[in-house]
Amino acid sequence: MKGNNVAHSKLRTKRDFSLNLKKKRFWSEEEQRFITLKVSCKGIRTIEKNGLEASLREARKNGLVNLV
Questions:
Q1: Which residue, among 6, 35, 8, has the nearest Cα to 44 in the 3D structure?
Q2: I need a labelling partner for 64 at 20 to 30 A (CA). Which of 6, 29, 53, 56 fits?
Q3: CA-CA distances (angstroms) from residue 24 to 7, 9, 61?
Q4: How many CB atoms lie within 10 A of CB 62?
């Protein structure tokens, strides 16, 4: 995502906003193996709340995940 740094003098310079992504391993009870995902911190909290399988099912339905 792009944006501006705004100085006290209202001078604007371009900047990039970086996403808060982490590489995290989750245990899948259904498949009896670890699944490594690159997710945001909010995504980690959502997975812990709803469960891995439910979150993956929802992400596949929305076209966000391509797992074989």
A1: 35
A2: 29
A3: 37, 42, 21
A4: 8
pLDDT at 68 over 80: no
pTM above 0.85, yes or no: no
At 17-28, the pLDDT tens digits run 888 999 999 999
Beta-carbon contacts of 21 under 8 Å, excluding residues fewer than 6 positions away, are 38, 39, 40
Which of helix, strand or coil describes residue 16? strand
Q: What is the CATH number of the domain that holds 14?
A: 2.30.170.40
Number of domains the chain contains: 1
Domain that holds residue 8: 2-61
* Residue among 31, 30, 48 nearest 39 (CA): 48
